[in-house]
């Protein structure tokens, strides 16, 4: 194809949920499908990028031309992300905010005399923020799923996590986001705001990759 916006550019994308162990057979997780991240990986590869897709546990096929690395916990995802230095980093994963403080070595048993156990949780690292805080960071793109004040919260995340772009997504609308096949978003940077109307995650991914590539060439390519 003649339009290869990301020829020779290394793009790393996190996608899907993370899985935080409780004991060898149980975990805490969320309903993220990974569809948006996988669609972005596919679209970036179609634009000639060298794509690394760091995937939490999802039930999706690897897009053609994409190098996929499967991970489980947020800590695994962070370690893998740090090892995959890239030109563009897109944090699309629904990372669990907390993990269990003391993971049991053996299956926890239900015993009549001790009653219901209490799980102590501790905060997980912020993957995107950690990547963006490196000495020579890639161009970082985040996602913000919110149910109210969507753009205000997204802008706050853009600044706090030192991102180039943030993709804001109103998840109070059940027609879009999480498990659905469609999405509609607003992409914010320090100085612009672009609306992407409701469409399939595949179509949206192509438009987002075009927008991200344009921003990269304008502000980041040395
Ligand atoms: O959870 P939050 O709304 O702060 O997520 C915003 C962005 O930060 C998303 O792009 C998400 O992938 C990323 N994130 C992350 N590591 C976390 C939490 C969020 O990379 N622990």
From TrEMBL:
GO terms for cellular component: phosphopantothenoylcysteine decarboxylase complex. Pathway: Cofactor biosynthesis; coenzyme A biosynthesis; CoA from (R)-pantothenate: step 2/5; Cofactor biosynthesis; coenzyme A biosynthesis; CoA from (R)-pantothenate: step 3/5. CTP binds at residues 91-93, 97, 107, 125-128, 143, 157, 161. It catalyses: N-[(R)-4-phosphopantothenoyl]-L-cysteine + H(+) = (R)-4'-phosphopantetheine + CO2; (R)-4'-phosphopantothenate + L-cysteine + CTP = N-[(R)-4-phosphopantothenoyl]-L-cysteine + CMP + diphosphate + H(+). GO terms for molecular function: FMN binding; metal ion binding; phosphopantothenate--cysteine ligase activity; phosphopantothenoylcysteine decarboxylase activity. Its cofactor is Mg(2+); FMN. Residues 11-222 are annotated as: Phosphopantothenate--cysteine ligase. Binds 1 FMN per subunit. Its EC number is 4.1.1.36, 6.3.2.5. One of its GO terms (biological process) is coenzyme A biosynthetic process. It comes from Idiomarina fontislapidosi. Keywords: Decarboxylase, Flavoprotein, FMN, Ligase, Lyase, Magnesium, Metal-binding, Multifunctional enzyme. It comes from the Bacteria. The keyword Disulfide bond does not apply. Catalyzes two sequential steps in the biosynthesis of coenzyme A. In the first step cysteine is conjugated to 4'-phosphopantothenate to form 4-phosphopantothenoylcysteine. In the second step the latter compound is decarboxylated to form 4'-phosphopantotheine. Catalyzes two steps in the biosynthesis of coenzyme A. In the first step cysteine is conjugated to 4'-phosphopantothenate to form 4-phosphopantothenoylcysteine, in the latter compound is decarboxylated to form 4'-phosphopantotheine. The gene is coaBC. In the C-terminal section; belongs to the PPC synthetase family. This is Coenzyme A biosynthesis bifunctional protein CoaBC. Residues 6-214 form the DNA/pantothenate metabolism flavoprotein C-terminal domain.
């Amino acid at each position: 194809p003649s339009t290869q916006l990301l020829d020779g550019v290394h793009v790393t994308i996190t996608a899907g949920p993370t899985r935080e162990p409780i004991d060898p057979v149980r975990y805490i997780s969320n309903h993220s499908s990974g569809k948006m991240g996988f669609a972005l990986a596919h679209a970036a590869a179609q634009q000639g990028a060298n794509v690394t897709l760091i995937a939490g546990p999802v039930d999706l096929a690897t897009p053609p031309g994409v190098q996929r690395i499967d991970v489980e916990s947020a800590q695994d995802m962070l370690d893998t992300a740090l090892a995959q230095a890239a030109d563009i980093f897109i944090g699309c994963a629904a990372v669990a905010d907390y993990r269990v403080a003391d993971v049991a070595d053996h299956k926890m048993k239900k015993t009549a005399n001790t009653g219901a156990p209490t799980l102590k949780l501790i905060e997980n690292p912020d993957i995107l923020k950690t990547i963006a805080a490196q000495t020579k960071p890639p161009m970082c793109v985040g996602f913000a799923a919110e149910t109210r004040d969507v753009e205000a919260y997204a802008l706050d995340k853009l600044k706090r996590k030192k991102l180039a772009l943030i993709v804001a997504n109103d998840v109070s609308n059940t027609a879009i986001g999480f498990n659905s096949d469609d999405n509609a978003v607003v992409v914010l940077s320090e100085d612009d705001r672009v609306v992407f109307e409701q469409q399939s995650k595949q179509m949206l991914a192509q438009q987002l990759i075009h927008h991200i590539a344009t921003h990269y060439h304008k502000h980041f390519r040395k």
